[in-house]
Amino acid sequence: MEASNGTKETPLPLALTSFQLSEEYGFLLPDPLTELPAPYGPWMEIAHDLPQLIASHQLRSQVHQMPQLSARHLRGHEELHLAHVVLSFITMGYIWQEGEEGTVKVLPRNLAVPFWEVSQALGLPPVLSHTDFVLANWRRKNPNGNLDTIIALPGGESLRGFILVTLLVEKAAVPGIKAIVRAIRAVLQLDEETLHKALRELAEAIGDMGKALKQMHDYVDPAVFYTVIRIFLSGWKDNPAMPEGLIYEGVSEEPMAYSGGSAAQSTVLHAFDELLGIRHSEESTAFLHRMREYMPPPHRAFVEEIGRAPSLKQHVLSSGDARLWAVFNQCVSALADFRSYHITIVTKYIAVAAVKAKAGQAEPGDRAGPSVGKPPSALEAKGTGGSHIFSFLKSVRDTTKEGAISA
């Protein structure tokens, strides 16, 4: 996406690669590494055996036996990303192995120090985020392109399905990400025809994201998600199960608090909101901006660059072009519809699943881990990122609708 000859150069995101974005994969890490160099074998051995170690309550003892390794020998952001995936998954297993009533106050030095070092190198927090769970945690099982995860947690096929369906949503967003770049350039060049085409492509991509999200029903059992998977995505900020946070031994004597993995950490919807000029409530905006701290810094910078671009909404308004108004509103409507469908998913996988779990109706076939017999309760009204989930989701959906242009 180079600027054409004679085009005025701008500091805007004209080259996706400048922000560690891929033309083919968007925010997904292209073809992530699946193995670390030999010295880091002890990490990989534990990571590849996490579901079994957690189910047998042996993970903590295995971590205590890990050698103290330095992250200094990791080279390049691919190795660093895999190390962050590995250490974040081990950390979540270590914290939640015994459920929400058996948490720990200290992450041991041999895990905490290298996790902190890798996190500092990548500009990511030392906790499992959307980047670790989805963006950098996929591989091709075979040349036909069948996908699998690199590292797993308890939850069996439902855990795998949850990660890979979320990955497909990210992949479906890629034409929309490229449309953002084209739309901004079209506004700068006053090219209404290109702008109209770019916005059509954006609306279509958001629709395709919704279609991808619907596959959650086919691959993820709500009982397994609620009673087994969800606790391992939980952080230690605004979490009643860990009110004091977590001490990272060898890093700080004071406890630190971080949110868990959350869809709000996906850069995609932040980018779409910025382009379309969607303005959320003060409380929702504060939470969403906090979630940006859990994105890779180049992805966060991409969203900030979009925010610095000339206002697309103002351009469409001042154009007086009915076709532009209509396609702009199609984008806003598609985004609101996607958010409405996300509420439907969350209702099924959290609210309804919570009721069934309390009633003792949840009997998943591939249950494993600490939640067997007692579903987690600390985060019933909250998302794993620490938000009051339904009020937040409905608020951002409603303010998205309000972003449409009125005739």
UniProtKB/TrEMBL annotation:
Domain of life: Eukaryota
Sequence segments annotated as region (Disordered): 361-385
Alphabetical list of Pfam families matching this protein: IDO
GO CC annotations, alphabetized: cytoplasm
Molecular function GO terms recorded: heme binding; indoleamine 2,3-dioxygenase activity; L-tryptophan 2,3-dioxygenase activity; metal ion binding
A GO BP annotation: immune system process
Family: Belongs to the indoleamine 2,3-dioxygenase family.
Cross-referenced PANTHER family: INDOLEAMINE 2,3-DIOXYGENASE, INDOLEAMINE 2,3-DIOXYGENASE 2
Annotated protein name in UniProt: I23O2 dioxygenase
Lineage: Eukaryota, Metazoa, Chordata, Craniata, Vertebrata
